[in-house]
Write a structure and sequence with these properties.
- It is a single chain.
- This protein folds into 3 domains: 111 residues, no CATH class; 101 residues, no CATH class; 200 residues, no CATH class.
- The protein is built from 14 helices and 18 strands.
- The longest helix is centred in the first third of the chain and has 25 residues.
- The strands form 5 sheets. Strands 8, 9, 10, 11, 14, 15, 16, 17 and 18 form a 9-stranded mixed sheet that branches. A 3-stranded antiparallel sheet has the order 4-3-5.
- It is globular and about 80 Å long.
């Protein structure tokens, strides 16, 4: 019986592409690099239906393995309207190759991270022909550990229509091929032109606007990073009249109905030490139904889409676990429940001590008690602002903090504008 081999659609690339939202070119330009990993725009197209058509065409190209010719045929009328013919025909090829390559490389990044333990080294490979830019030739063949900062700025594509790729290597392959694993990014690299043989020295810098990592930004998505050094700004309580029926805007938190106080069991609390950082994060992610350390989920936090993933607890530049949240480790499950099901949400300003900047935050609060007690034993709060967060946890499961002190601390969290309170029904 003959064996028929059919190519499989690149599932990770398709997932990446379908997660992109069509936006206007103006909105796209206003975004930071990380946000752009979640958006799609076409310079020159003002109508959103046209941008959407191009987005759909690229999606079909990924799903069906279409060629550039197939891609052009899907929206020929737009090409004619924009005058992207003749000498301007390069525009459509640029759109196709750049976006398809971005999708493939984002999917490839996720796959490579999964096997990073057995294949911990990555090598950047450029196409060595007359079309390859000098800066891309300069980094061709360089090998770095998969978690090296080099990949923060030099993960392909590194420019429009970039054809560079990254391959994974085991330690045995590195030794067998006589490759050198770089520890520092070179300031200057000698480049030999493959067509002319001429030599030149090049500073390895990606094309303008491409010093990012589309795969990492995609995985991090909208996951905010922790920002320490935040200080509450004194602010009176303001109410949005009509949102809370007959309930007073700010009744004493000590008078809260018992049904609004979450019950916490001993098993919900993690040891202060003895577990790996990954285990604490797994406990946090598990509260959102995420069963893999590299898994993620987008949730709606009172009008703000937020990606829940391990990126909440890692350094954006290195991917290493942050140390600033170690005091919160025993209460990771409680912090997650505060985000998932807050009792109250306040909109309030905070000041960053180091920069002096003011941020408007969403402050989420939830009280907890032990199963055998009616009394509050602690509370958790989580503040979200833009692409950053800060969590303040005050919890006393062993009754080593008085009720009065717990309530007093919780009351300090309640300021600004009350935008949500759990229903009393």
């Amino acid at each position: 019986m003959p064996v028929t081999v059919e190519p499989l659609a690149p599932a990770e690339a398709i997932k990446f592409w379908k997660g992109k939202a069509p936006v206007s070119a103006r909105d796209f330009e206003a975004m930071d690099a990380a946000a752009r990993a979640r958006a799609f725009a076409v310079s020159g197209l003002a109508k959103m239906d046209q941008v959407g058509s191009v987005h759909t065409a690229i999606s079909k190209a990924l799903e069906d393995g279409e060629t550039l010719r197939d891609f052009k045929g899907r929206f020929g009328s737009i090409i004619e309207q924009q005058g992207w013919t003749g000498k301007k025909a390069w525009r459509i090829e640029n759109i196709f190759r750049t976006n398809v390559q971005s999708a493939y490389m984002a999917g490839r990044y996720r796959q490579m991270k999964r096997v990073s333990k057995s294949r911990p080294y990555w090598q950047l490979v450029a196409v060595r022909d007359r079309r390859t830019r000098q800066t891309h030739l300069a980094v061709d063949g360089l090998v770095f550990p998969h978690d090296h900062p080099f990949w923060q700025t030099w993960y392909p594509p590194n420019g429009f229509a970039c054809r560079c790729v990254v391959i994974t290597l085991s330690e045995r392959q590195v030794k067998a091929r006589g490759l050198k694993v770089q520890t520092e990014i070179p300031d200057m690299i000698r480049v030999v032109d493959p067509e002319t043989g001429m030599e030149s020295f090049v500073t390895p810098i990606p094309d303008k606007g491409w010093a990012t990592n589309v795969g990492e930004d995609w995985m991090a998505g909208l996951a905010p990073s922790e920002l320490d050094g935040m200080k509450d700004r004194a602010l009176p309580v303001l109410c949005r009249h009509g949102n809370f029926a007959d309930d007073p805007c700010k009744p004493p938190i000590s008078a809260i109905d018992r049904k609004h106080i979450h019950v916490v069991k001993n098993a919900d609390l993690l040891p202060k030490q003895g577990l790996a950082a990954e285990d604490y994060v797994r406990a946090f992610l598990g509260e959102f139904g995420i069963d893999h350390i590299n898994g993620s989920k987008v949730i709606n936090v009172h009008g703000f889409p937020v990606t829940i993933s391990k990126a909440l607890f890692t350094e954006k530049t290195t991917g290493a676990w942050k140390k600033t949240w170690t005091d919160k480790r025993p209460y990771m499950r409680l912090l997650a429940r505060t985000i998932r099901e807050p009792y109250e949400v306040w909109w309030r300003p905070m000041d960053h001590k180091a920069t002096g900047r003011m941020y408007f935050t969403l402050r989420m609060i939830r009280l907890f008690r032990m199963p055998s007690s009616k009394e509050v034993c602690g509370f958790s709060s989580f503040s979200l602002f833009g692409r950053n967060w800060t969590g303040a946890t005050a919890f006393a499961p062993r009754a080593n903090r008085s009720q009065k002190a717990i309530y007093a601390q919780a009351e300090k969290e309640r300021a600004g504008i009350l935008i949500y309170r759990e229903s009393l029904k």
